[in-house]
Specification:
By secondary structure, the chain is of the alpha+beta class. Helices cover about 30% and strands about 30% of the residues. The chain has 2 domains: about 100 residues, Alpha-Beta Plaits; about 140 residues, endopeptidase domain like (from Nostoc punctiforme) (endopeptidase fold (from Nostoc punctiforme)). The protein is built from 8 helices and 12 strands.
């Protein structure tokens, strides 16, 4: 049941100011993925979840990005015009602040694996349906068939021109009626975290990380960030868009490259 009191509180906290992200005409023509940041609930998870439930009941494709601040978003939208129409409705009818995000402009961190410790995933075709008994795995593979053979493109968002790992996941989950943010790093903040790899089930998102170095007070300090994501389909396997082979493939979590860089999993189905 929707908590109207919390929605009123959320509206009081975020409402009426309409912030529109600034885009150049060139950026509008080049971009293809937009979302609406409906409100920021600070650390109030209950308020964010109540607001998300309310927006879903109003027909918005809403979801939450969890971190120190719980961010409620709506999307993705394929055109700026569609996002702007929903933003205008959100402001006029729901009395909420709304900001359009150009998700194609968000930084991507998917990189090629280091030489020597990577095995390319295997190609998948229609004949592979028989190899998977789980209905969710079959559905994910079915939805993915049209992407197989298309070239992978870093930061890509047009299926005909190539896709990257996080857009592949975003598109598949959209077909499953689950909304996700654009980048792997933000997808790592969605859904429920799993405590152990042994808890994995078909449809969970699996994430991988890489260690980087930066200078702090004349010293090199390591830090890690999420740089890859795939969808678990059972028996230790996951399906993903891979920069090395430039298409959607299936790999195994036990492969040395992924075993060493596994960062965790999130459940949304």
């Amino acid at each position: 049941m929707i908590n109207r009191a919390l929605i009123s509180a959320a509206s009081a906290a975020f409402f009426i100011s309409a912030t529109l992200a600034v885009f150049s005409p060139e950026a509008l023509r080049a971009s293809g993925i937009f979302s609406i940041r409906a409100a920021s609930s600070g650390s109030d998870r209950e308020r964010a979840e109540s607001l998300c439930e309310y927006l879903l009941s109003r027909g918005y494709p809403a979801y939450i990005v969890y971190e120190d601040s719980c961010e409620v978003r709506s999307g993705p939208y394929d055109t700026f015009e569609s996002a702007d129409a929903h933003r205008a409705r959100m402001i006029a009818e729901d009395k909420l602040a709304a900001e359009i995000l150009d998700e194609s402009a968000l930084p991507q961190h998917d990189e090629a694996p280091a030489a020597g410790d990577y095995l390319p995933g295997r190609d998948v075709g229609s004949s592979d349906f028989a190899a998977y008994s789980d209905s969710t795995a079959k559905k994910i593979i079915e939805l993915s068939i049209d992407l197989f053979g298309h070239p992978y493109k870093y930061g890509g968002q047009s299926v005909g021109k190539g896709i990257d790992c996080s857009y592949y996941v975003q598109r598949i989950f959209s077909e499953l009626s689950v909304r996700l943010p654009r980048t792997a790093a933000e997808q790592f903040k969605a859904g429920a975290a799993l405590s152990s790899e042994s808890d994995l089930r078909v449809g969970d998102l699996v994430f991988f990380k890489k260690t980087y170095w930066r200078g702090v007070n004349r010293r090199r300090v390591p830090y890690t960030r999420i740089n890859h994501v795939g969808i678990y389909i059972g028996d230790g396997e996951f399906i993903h868009a891979t920069i090395n082979v430039k298409k959607v493939t299936i790999s195994n979590l036990s492969e040395p490259y992924y075993l060493k860089r596994y960062a965790g999993a999130r459940r949304l189905l």
